[in-house]
Design brief:
The chain is α+β, with helices and mostly antiparallel strands. Helix content is 45%, strand content 18%. It contains 23 helices and 26 strands. The strands form five sheets. It has a seven-stranded mixed sheet with strand order 14-26-25-24-15-22-23, with helices on both faces. It has a six-stranded antiparallel sheet with strand order 6-5-7-13-8-11, with no helix packed on it. Helix 4 crosses helix 6 (219-248) and helix 22 runs antiparallel to helix 23 (732-751). The longest helix has 36 residues, at 691-726. The relative contact order is 0.12. Residues 75-137 and 673-677 have low confidence and may be disordered.
Length: 763
């Protein structure tokens, strides 16, 4: 279609650092019909945004000429499905003042608009970067072309030493041949990059340094330098592969087969062929092969692979379960709710891969710096080589040698990988703990947050009411609960579900009810064992029976505590009452305390009535509570906080608070599994723990600290070896070690972020 825009994702083999990514980015961006390019060396992916006709052949040909393998990533071309919220979620923006407990159970539909706001960062054009021998990235590292080339170069160097030992007269020729074994592939890549419009690469620096060394009769050092360069790159590739595998390994958690139940019989099928709606059987000890909802059975499920939570979680009928989690105790029957390509783990992997293509401000700065850095290194090397001989008559061979060493010292490998390696490791570490971030800019921004606005319902609280108090008067507590459960059996109203859940938990059998009917705006009534039973609001109960002043005072105190009270009548007699409230999440108080320890100001925003909001706020130790708000009010408050100079994060369900999420510097969705609305938010806490917000911020701070360390290592080593080379202490060998050694050090330092401590898990 003319002028139409389309995106294509590719899997690129052989990219081991940001230098590779930048070289591909620059070359592909120069092609006609390309609107934008995003490349991630750590994920091994490239996304190309075409304008007009997709020129796929030209893209693939350009990437292959640079020495990389490339193939379309078909499974990632699909737009992820937007998953609707569960109907049992309690939504802010509605007044939950249940003084009049309405048992009509009429619920209007809610329109959940997903206002996207894109914080993605376009990839900057970066020149002067590093390239490698790019063999397949799959399989054992020692079978890669890079490893084979390194072995061949090493073997040639050993042969040259033997030849030089037995036939000294031809040793310089033997070393020159040994050098060419490793240098020819490097020089070919330098030429390919130059023809693609990228003349300043590490291959260029390496080729000039090696050829120059031969010319000044330092062929032995030239051969050794080429070999050490290849060794360094091989080590870097292994380290980069480890970072890539840390997130890709998640996909291996999903079993390849599943037991499907049809017409009362089970048969084994491939897990990736499961259709939505299919019923699968999961035996104790098996991994669950698909996202789904339990239709029969109850069991403890180990969700650590998806959420990072080490303690198994009790799951029963109507609960959601995730692919890759482990069924612990009993047989479960699960209805599949997502195809293999859209299950939670697949979505996490895809989101992290896409996030790695989004550069942080620091990374973009390093890219821009590197654009001028390599030409600058060539200029400095040339000046070191020619100025002393021309100005003071110094030895040409000595200063040309030093100039060549400067070229090797100046290689930008360690510098350009310092930031993306740390960010990739952090994104992977976060994803494995259920902390999803949309990219480097978000990861960097989280560490600067000074204020957080949190929704109450579904964020600080569970999002559904629970029975908190059972008051007995003329009947016992178990009778009150059993009669209330009898009236509510079959209802899907959140308050009814709370009563039924409490009855099941307390093992109270619901009595048998007949002639059940709802009384609009008042409550519900039925006949139980020949007695008329009514459950409803205190006001409606007062119209039927006499309520004592002491009981009214008790109801008032419960209401002041933010609880909804339903009164139970047996005939004309008050049998008792049941109080319910949407309770705080178990870790909410600790989570808010952890944020306070980080020096972050917190504010609660809710559409609920102020009495309930203040009661929950007091329970959680929150002083700043704003209640009875509409979505636009929340957006305004976020704007006011930003106007005071604060860096603000907004935490919510990501669905009906899109304006406030978009208005904040960072929008964080709090949810579980496929309910997470990442279309709206910049980041998400996958399994809804408030404590994880502080973990996400600590991960950001640790990452920025790691990046600072990496840049210091990269530039510090270069500065030291530059001085020692110019004063004649070190030569070509230490110069290349300064580059490859710094690159490996920086990569290994970044990989420390994969550890639980630096990854934000412990505090």
């Amino acid at each position: 279609m003319a002028n139409a825009s389309s995106k294509k994702r590719y899997r690129v083999d052989g990219m081991d650092c940001a230098s590779c990514a930048a070289k591909i980015d620059t070359a592909v961006r120069k092609l006609p019909g390309i609107n934008d390019v995003s490349v991630s060396s750590t994920a091994g992916t490239m996304t190309v945004d075409f304008v007009g006709e997709e020129n796929l052949e030209a893209v693939e040909r350009t990437v292959k000429k640079l020495g990389y393998g490339v193939a379309p990533k078909e499974s990632s071309d699909k737009t992820p499905k937007s998953t609707p919220a569960h109907s049992d979620h309690s939504h802010e923006g509605h007044d939950h003042d249940h003084e009049g407990h309405d048992h009509d159970h009429n619920h209007e539909g809610h329109d959940h608009s997903h206002d996207k706001h894109d914080h993605g960062d376009k990839t900057e054009e970066s020149l002067g970067l590093h390239g490698h021998d790019h063999g397949p990235s799959d399989g054992p590292w020692w079978k890669s072309r890079k490893a084979l080339l390194t072995l061949a170069s090493g073997a040639a160097l050993v042969v040259a030493y033997l030849v030089g030992h037995f036939i000294p007269s031809i040793d310089k020729y033997a070393f020159a041949v040994a050098m060419l074994v490793g240098l020819i592939p490097i020089a070919k890549r330098a030429l390919a990059a130059a023809l693609a419009g990228i003349p300043f690469t590490i291959e260029t620096l390496m080729t000039i340094a090696a050829v120059g060394a031969v010319i000044i009769n330092a062929s032995e050092e030239a051969a050794a330098v080429v070999f050490l360069f290849l060794v360094g790159e091989l080590l870097e590739g292994i380290a980069a592969g480890r970072a890539r595998a840390s997130i890709q390994s998640l996909t291996k958690l999903v079993p390849t087969t599943a037991l499907i139940e049809e017409n009362g019989k089970t048969q084994e099928v491939q897990a990736d062929t499961l259709q939505i709606g299919a019923i699968i059987v999961v035996r104790p000890g098996d991994r669950i092969p698909a996202d789904g909802t339990i239709v029969d059975g109850a069991s403890a499920v180990n969700e650590a692979p998806v959420t990072g939570e080490s303690v198994p979680v009790r799951r029963a009928k109507d609960d959601d379960v995730f692919a890759g989690t482990i069924n612990g105790e009993a047989v479960l029957k699960v209805r599949v709710t997502a195809a293999a390509a859209d299950n939670t783990i697949a979505r996490v992997v895809k989101l992290v891969e896409e996030a790695q293509e989004s550069k942080s401000p620091t990374e973009r700065f390093i890219d821009r710096f590197s654009k001028y850095y390599t030409p600058g290194v060539l200029a400095v090397g040339a000046l070191v080589a020619v100025l002393p001989p021309l100005v003071s008559g110094a030895s040409w061979s000595e200063w040309v040698y030093k100039g060549l060493a400067v070229l090797l010292i100046g290689c930008p490998c360690a510098l350009v990988i310092s930031t993306p390696a740390a960010i990739a490791a952090s994104l992977s570490a976060g994803a494995r703990r259920g902390l999803l971030l949309k990219g480097g800019a978000v990861l960097e921004g989280l560490g600067k947050i000074t204020a957080i606005a949190l929704d109450k319902t579904g964020t600080l609280t569970e999002g559904k009411p629970k029975v908190t108090d059972i008051i007995s008067l003329s009947r016992s507590e178990s009778e009150v609960l059993g009669l209330a459960a009898a009236l509510e059996t079959g209802s899907s109203h959140p308050l009814a579900l709370a009563i039924l859940a409490k009855a099941e938990e307390a093992k109270v059998q619901a009595a048998s009810a007949s002639e059940s009917k709802a009384i609009g705006g008042k409550g519900v009534t039925a006949m139980v064992d020949g007695t008329s039973i009514f459950l409803g609001s205190p006001q409606a109960a007062a119209e039927i029976a006499t309520i004592s002043s002491d009981f009214k005072e008790l109801i008032r105190l419960l209401n002041d505590d933010g609880k909804t009270v339903s009164v139970l009548l047996a005939g004309q007699e008050v049998a008792g009452a049941i109080a319910m409230r949407d309770e705080p999440r178990p870790d909410a108080k600790d989570g808010l305390k952890a944020l306070k320890e980080l020096g972050i100001q917190t504010v609660m925003l809710t559409g609920d009535n102020s009495r309930t909001a203040k009661a929950i706020g007091a329970q959680l130790g929150m002083d700043d509570v704003r209640a009875e708000l509409l979505p636009e009010d929340k957006q305004k408050i976020v704007g006011e906080l930003r106007a005071k100079g604060m860096v603000v994060a907004k935490v919510g369900d990501g669905i009906n608070d899109a304006p406030a999420l978009a208005a904040a510097d960072i929008g964080i969705a709090m949810g579980g599994g496929t309910d997470v609305a990442l279309e709206t938010a910049d980041a998400a806490v996958l399994h809804g723990r408030v404590r994880d917000i502080s973990r996400m911020i600590r991960l950001s701070k640790n990452t920025m600290s790691n990046i600072t360390q990496n840049i210091t290592i990269a530039l510090g080593l270069k500065a030291v070896f530059l001085v020692t080379t110019v004063i004649g202490v070190t030569g070509l060998w230490p110069a290349i070690l300064a580059d490859t050694g710094a690159t490996v050090l920086v990569t290994m330092n970044a990989l420390r972020l994969l550890s639980p401590k630096l990854g934000g898990e412990t505090e």
